[in-house]
Amino acid sequence: MASEEQGVALPAGASIGWIGAGRMGLAMCARLLGAGARVSVYNRTRSKAEPLAALGAQLVGKPSDLGSCDMVFSMMAGPESFLAVMLGEGGLLTGDGPFPGQVIDCSTISAEASEEVRAAGAKLGVPLLDAPVSGNAKVVEAGKLAIVCSGTRAAFDAAAPYLKAIGPAVTYAGEGNTARIVKICHNVHLTVVIQSLVEILTLAEKAGVPRHALMEFINHSVMGSMFTGYKTPALVKLDYTPTFTAPLLRKDMDLGLSAARALEVPMPLAAQTREILQALIGNGFTTCDFAALLELQARASKLDLKPEDVEVGTGL
């Protein structure tokens, strides 16, 4: 059974709701279904959730249809869509109920949006657990997703078995919105790292070093990471099939820089990297993976990039 393969034992009988079946939401919900969870799913575009129905999920027509679930997960593109499915027309926390036992939100959103939903839920006796994640759909499928959580300890303890079915690395960061700032800091760091990576790849290639050789060395060095490993195929083969797009990453950079301004923390490197990301978007790279920053750097360096036809691993 899938639950045995994932090494997860879920409490018997709980009903789980899931909102959001994009690339990440689809992969994460599939992990829950694979662990034997009983899941009902809402997605604005119903057809995108149909692969989950094939795995045993029940599809519903609006978020409030999940109100009788013991807990409801959400994985949305940003704060606006999160607020809409929670507090908008037909939202999970609107109307006369019933309302779920708790909400676990895995999106990367602002602390303000999180607090608005937390306050609305508190009036209904529905705690919110912030549970943003690190990784992409391939990382989810490999069982290596990392999750950071904040909220009440009781809400975390109740959700922990399900979170561990989705990804084994689950961190509790305390009360309130602390997980939001952890995830925003993570994505600011990610953006700075990928920009640094494309700069040194371009430098090395102009000096005659194949990209795969530099990446192989980095991945085996102290500077290697899961991130550099799973981005290696994209950077070597110039495969920009989207795992995370530049507009979505810009949203996270804006959240990070906004928090920095509010807390009077200078972030000159992050601010400059955000503008490079804006240049990528301005050059039309809006629907592909953010690894296309390599193309922008190559153009600025008068380097003609070509895919390298070599076998490289993902590190997953």
CATH superfamily of the largest domain: NAD(P)-binding Rossmann-like Domain
Question: What is the helix content?
Answer: 40-55%
Q: Class of the largest domain in CATH?
A: Alpha Beta
Low-confidence stretches: 1-5
Quickly count the domains.
Answer: 2
Beta-strand percent range:
5-15%
Overall mean confidence score, pLDDT:
93
Number of strands: 9
* Cα shape: globular
Computed over alpha carbons, the radius of gyration is 20 Å
CATH architecture of the largest domain: 3-Layer(aba) Sandwich
Strand order of the largest sheet: 3-2-1-4-5-6
Q: Major beta sheet, specifics?
A: 6 strands, parallel
Number of helices: 13
Give the termini distance in whole angstroms: 22 Å
Derived structural class? alpha/beta
Which fold name is given in CATH as the topology of the largest domain? Rossmann fold
Compressed to H and E, one letter per element, the order equals HEHEHEEHEHEEHEHEHHHHHH
